[in-house]
Specification:
There is one protein chain. It contains ten helices and 13 strands. With about 280 residues, the protein is of the alpha/beta class. The protein has a domain of about 190 residues: NAD(P)-binding Rossmann-like Domain (Rossmann fold, 3-Layer(aba) Sandwich). The protein has a six-stranded parallel β-sheet, sandwiched between helices. Helix 5 links the parallel strand 4 and strand 5. Helix 6 packs across helix 8. The relative contact order is 0.16.
Length: about 280
């Protein structure tokens, strides 16, 4: 298949490009290649590529940036997705959209399923839910909701924190956010399986098992043989963030299993593999 990937310079875009390139003809599109807020430019790019599938992770993913500038968040995350969906339809391509657990309100205390009501409490979550609705207007689509991302290609929550510890600093993380963690390469492999099988629909997708940000950070430090004591947990409300963080965002992958796909491996195993790939600076004692 011919695959076009938006946001290919981002963390998940990098992982998707790595995985899909092994089996398909991939065009990786960064902002300079195709500005999703410019519909005519996007349509021209898609017409030239002629993709069978457009995978669309491009977005403003920072919750605090979205909260500070909701107009910009709406332009990129919602209007941009409308432009991608329209341009893909014009060239006969299906769209696989990368969404988020932020479409929920975090008040549930059992894993969220794909059929649970959505009630986002942040600008970011609202824009992503609106974009889901746009993509789901098509006859053939995929929506994949993912959670905390870590993986190669771009600095992320895990790598940034480990660099702080290696530099002799504290890594301050939320102690009261329980959710799912997602290794980008594992998620990309599963998306490839689902897309190749043409099993359209809405899917939750993360590595198996729930963890708090604190548990994830401490385990990463241990695997990197750094001082896990420098990982400091604090309540989210004390971290000076503009946007609300969900206390509970564990996702159940019911649709994935009902469609006959095995869920990705446990987050601990994925994290261990990822840590082995990192080249961290020499630690300062």
């Amino acid at each position: 298949m011919k695959i076009a990937i938006t946001g290919a310079r981002g963390l998940f875009g990098y992982g998707l490009t790595e995985v899909f390139s092994a089996r398909h003809s991939v065009t990786d599109l960064g902002h300079q290649d195709a500005d999703i807020t410019r519909p005519e430019e996007l349509r021209a790019v898609f017409t030239k590529i002629g993709p069978d599938v457009v995978i669309h992770p491009a977005a403003i993913p920072d919750l605090d940036i979205c909260e500070a500038d909701p107009d910009r968040a709406f332009l990129v995350n919602v209007t941009g997705t409308r432009n991608v969906a329209d341009a893909a339809r014009d060239v006969g391509a299906a769209v696989a959209y990368i969404s988020t657990d932020a479409v929920f309100d975090g008040k549930k205390r059992t894993p969220y399923t794909e059929s649970d009501p959505t009630l986002p409490v942040t600008v970011y979550g609202r824009t992503k839910l609106l974009a889901e609705g746009i993509v789901r207007e098509a006859a053939e689509y995929w929506v994949f909701r993912v959670s905390v991302l870590f993986g190669p290609g771009k600095a992320n929550f895990v790598e940034k924190g480990l660099n702080k510890i290696a530099a002799g600093e504290e890594w301050i993380v939320a102690a009261d956010q329980l959710g799912s963690a997602t290794y980008t390469l594992d998620a990309a492999e599963k998306i490839r399986e689902v897309v190749e099988a043409r099993r359209h629909g809405l899917y939750h997708l993360a590595n198996q098992g729930a963890c708090t940000r604190l548990e994830l950070a401490r385990r990463a430090a241990e695997l990197a043989r750094l001082d896990a004591g420098r990982v400091v947990g604090k309540p989210s409300r004390e971290m000076g963030r503009r946007a609300v963080r969900l206390e509970y965002a564990v996702m159940e992958m019911r649709a994935l299993q009902q469609a006959g796909f095995a869920p990705p491996r446990p987050w601990q195993d994925a994290l261990e593999e990822y840590i082995r790939t990192l080249q961290l600076p020499a630690r300062k004692d």
